[in-house]
Amino acid sequence: MVGDNNRRDVLKGTAAAGLAGLLGVTGTGLAQDQGQRLSWHAGGTGGTYFPLSNEFKTVIEENTDFTIQVQSTGASVENVGSLARGDADFALIQNDIAFFAYNGTGIEAFQGEAIESLRGVATLYPETIHVVTRPETGIETIEDLEGATINTGDLGSGTQVNALQILETVGITTDDFEEQNASFAQAADQLRDGDIDAAFVVGGWPLGAIEELATTTDISIVEISGDTREQVLDASPLFAEDEIPGGTYSGVDEDVPTVSVQAMIATNQDLSADTVESVTRAIFENTDALTIKADFISEDTALDGMSIPLHPGARAVFGPATTEAPTGNETDTGNETDTGMTETTTES
Fold first, then answer.
1. Closest Cα partner for 323 from 346, 301, 340, 302?
2. pLDDT tens digits for 74-98?
3. In this predicted model, what pLDDT tens digit does every residue of 43-70 receive, in sequence order?
4. N or C, which terminus of the chain has less Cβ within 10 Å?
5. What letter would DSSP give residue 99?
6. What's the predicted TM-score (pTM) here?
């Protein structure tokens, strides 16, 4: 596993220099170079990606000849780089980050550095935006975050991208708050210790780090609702309405309206179609063996929100994917959000 400090250094370099240098490195993760062992990059241990990836590992190993090595990472943006280099065969990423990477837009790390080798395998479940705080901070709306100390997620992560998008939507820029960058588990510790006022945490509920925090510390979750939610939805069609059910976390008894993106499995175009088809069938023919987000993961919805071209191996399982792909509109900070929709058939 890459250490947090080393990973942060790598991501800082990526953001500063783009991915051009990284793409010239040939990795060793692709299955055809590794026999039957596949590398699967997940996310932090306090989120949903890591435990779900380990459930996928069990299902795949029980139903194919492959063995799976699951690696904890900084999640979406870092995982895109791993797929591009060939260091990972499969990875979990957000569908909005996949779109930005494939099109070379949206965030600084990808500007002008389109990752055209990125391919989709399947979408999975809503990645719910949690804005977690403590009741004593008095933070009740997104607008109240101005002037606060906020953990926006690991540097370069999809969580950080979403956090800055949402804050910018209500007129809060990085000059208007003190930003901290750490994993979900570290963010929970910071909230518990009073070192930050709020944290953005993006993932399928319930998130382990927040569940654990709520057992020892009073928490509240900030609503993204009303006009604010409409502004966020208008800023990017890759956001969708969502809700955290009351009782998901101790002490949070009422439903919390919010927004979400979509979790997806991605791969590299160079991975063989047979390998991708075998892994995909193993997962989607054995969803009854899953316990995490199992209600959302099905063959019927596996192409919902697919934002990049589908790998031929996945197309053999699901058929062609005709999706609505966004077109970009640049914002004041240089990040691109999406205001238009263009139909794209993602078949290759």
1. 346
2. 889 999 999 999 999 999 999 999 9
3. 988 889 999 999 999 999 999 999 999 9
4. N
5. H
6. 0.79
